[in-house]
Known about the structure:
Elements: H1 3-12, H2 14-31, E1 36-49, H3 66-76, H4 80-90, E2 97-100, H5 102-105, H6 112-121, E3 128-133, E4 141-148, H7 151-167, E5 194-197, E6 202-209, H8 213-240
Parallel strand pairs: 2-3
Antiparallel strand pairs: 1-4, 1-5, 1-6, 3-4
Helix pairs in contact: 2-8, 4-7
Amino acid sequence: MELLPILRLIWRRRILLGAGLVVSVALALGLGGPPKSSSVLAWTRVNLDTPTSQLVNSSPGGADTLPWRASFLIHLMATDATQKRLAQSLHVRPDEVAVVDPALGVPIVPASIPTAASDAAGITVAPYVLTLTLPTVTLPTIAIEAAAPDRAGAKRLAAAAVAVLESQSSLSADRFSSKILTGGGVVLKRQPFLVEQVAPIRAKRVTERVISPKQIGPPVLILVLWTAGALLLPGRLHRRRPRVAPAV
Length: 248
């Protein structure tokens, strides 16, 4: 029942409250819109294949290992050595490059504390951010997204990621030496694989507006003070007004 008197008071002071809202909106427009934050996003894809391509042979040896190998390569990209290598390709400091692995950023149990911790850890302020994902767990295709302040930097970061992944190929000069034996049958053996780029590097500019506290703070403060004054001051002035004695 206490809500009804408040609603009646708001209705009686609706003109004053509306004027305060108009003043706050006018002040917000006078300060200007929020600044624009612009960056460039480049993307491409690489695919893992067997030396005898699956396009030629319907069932080449080692084809069943390619999806988990692709997932493993994504995890390797998040190491400090790879981050340093990417930074050298861009001619920047290693702390200016961040590699994001979404598969490791999502907690297995979606509880409140692990989710809050993963969200906090996922925030990065590095100007160059590389994100690698496996769009389909059954296909050995790695999606690469590179974010940078300009178009040239985004494309260079995506190209550097492709070069690092291609260097992990079994036939590469600086290939990654795996100790894992794979393949069916009685005797396990090492299964070679290739990493090839299957899509060109494309880029686009992404622009978003960032709301600054300096721009929304004054209008909100004025609206709060105006509302409080409109609801409280007229009643106090009415109570303090001296009563005039009736004429005899």
